[in-house]
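Posting for a labmate who doesn't have an account.
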Amino acid sequence: MKKRLLFTMLVIGLGSNAQMKLTATSSKSLNTDGSVAYIDSTQFNYAWDKGMISTHQPEFTIMGDAPVYLYQYRQPTLDYTTRELWGANNYPLSQNWMSTKTYNGSNQCTSDEGAGFRELFTYNANGKVATHTFENESMPGVWDIQERMEFFYDANDRLIAAHRFDGVSSFYTNKDSVWYDGTTNNVLTRKSYESADGMTFYLMYKSETTWTGNQPTTVNYFEDDDSDPMTPIVWFLTGDYTFTGSNCTLFEVFLVVNDVPTTTLAAQWDYSFNGSNQLISDVQSGGFGDVRIDYTYQADGLLETIDQQEDQGTGLATYRFVRFYYTDVTGIEEETLEFSVYPNPTTDKVNISQVCDRVEVFTMNGELVLAQSNTNNVDLSSFIAGNYLIKVSNGNGTGSKMIVKN
């Protein structure tokens, strides 16, 4: 039975309005007998103006194939600047690697994962992700493209196509397209094309979704059932949505035989919610495996734990448990740090009247061009002449001033 029911074109950002920061996560991976296989811990660090999160809850979206609850923390725009990853089979944990991110204004532009791997992002004029590139460092200072995704949008900023470039074979291997219902954001059809030579593309997968208002009712899946690109795709599954109010509570997938839907249930997903309409359980059963995910929330509504369970032949058992930790920064970002810079204008160095935990220099277009820690001066001698914005943070205070480089 075909198992590819997730379409990965959707690119979602993370809101930044609430006065909370995600500071750490911890997780335990368990063996089938319940013993600990591995323990992970991740710490997040931020520039003073990064890292504000909104709700940090699973968000429901339609990806053309199935109702999918996307976790905001998995998206590429969680605005941490440094992430430290620790792990071991037991305590104490050892640091595995550290990843860092840099930004062009509010948009992430690089993510250096350490150990010779990084991700690069570019954006279009409307702030939408244009490219997402994965690179490996084959030798010091030499970066090779492993994969690049290119995204295309219509006049309404709706994603209409994604192309995948395989750096190993040096050509495009996949091209995906999406069509919408008139001027709404309802997805009607998604198509996925594959190529073995980068020149000829064959339709390998298609989904078609029908809607009632802004709620999906049915989705049909078509796929090449024998991996031969010369043969046409066939209708092999159909899925039905059930909503209770605005919440999707059930999604059922049935087999299709000779273009006729059957009553044979291939798989289903059951979703449960609490009184605040927060997702508290996601149960998958049937031909795609038996999985249960339970969620808990803090009193302020932020996601607190994820309990992931899987049936490996002996019934459902937890294989990964994740906990999230937050820091309340209400009011901290608004405090003003009094400082002075001199000389201003300058031809080379700028001195700061106190040692600062974090110093950043931006162009007037919002591009971050310099970042330093624990310093009271910055060297601008290599910068071109012009106006810059210097931002500093120290303890609970932040501040910014314009500087001029002659």
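Reply:
Got it, the structure tokens are right above this. The chain has a mean pLDDT of 81.
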